[in-house]
Amino acid sequence: MTKQEALELVRKHGSLSAAQRASGIDRKTLRRIINGNQGGAMYAKRTDSNQSLIVKALRDTGHGVIDLSGVGKGCPDLLVGRGMSWVMVECKTDKGKLTPEQVIWHNEHRDHGPIVIARDPVQAVQDVSKAVVGKWRNKGAV
User: Fold this and answer.
1) b/e string for 85-99 if b means 16 or more Cβ within 10 A?
2) Is 127 helix (H, G, I), strand (E, B) or coil?
């Protein structure tokens, strides 16, 4: 199976787990195909143009921000904290879409805490503020 076929399978079924059940290929093998046979990290080639503005707005409003954009493999761009709460933030431009790797990551991790998709600084601060006080609900399947 090629990487493209594996990604299409995940897209079609909505999650890595569902794709694994439908194909009969074990989860570890599917991940290896998607991430490359070496298992090495896939690094982000660039950050979204609005990310620095979003980071500045969050820091200016008292949030701690850790840049995770270099992690790759679908991991959100930012880890944002305030008080004792942490929120994952994916920065996207107005027309930006999640990559297949991001869709997989979001589907696998949405039950572990808030994941905010931020398209502008004002919206990012509002959504992260909702998330840290427990009023944020992750959307359904990405």
Assistant:
1) eebbbbbbeeeeeee
2) helix
User: Which ranges of 14-99 would DSSP assign to H, the alpha helix?
Assistant: 16-23, 27-35, 51-60
Domain 51-132: give its CATH architecture: 3-Layer(aba) Sandwich (3.40)
pLDDT, tens digit, for every residue of 11-65?
Answer: 888 877 788 788 877 777 777 777 765 444 444 456 778 899 999 999 999 999 9
Cβ-proximal residues to 36 (8 Å cutoff; 6+ apart), any chain = 3, 42
* Higher pLDDT, residue 23 or 67: 67
Distance separating alpha carbons of residues 14 and 18, to the nearest angstrom: 7
Task: For the full predicted model, state whether its pTM sits above 0.90.
Answer: no
| Overall residue count recorded for the chain in this entry | 142
The burial class, CB within 10 Å (0-12 / 13-18 / 19+), for 100 is middle
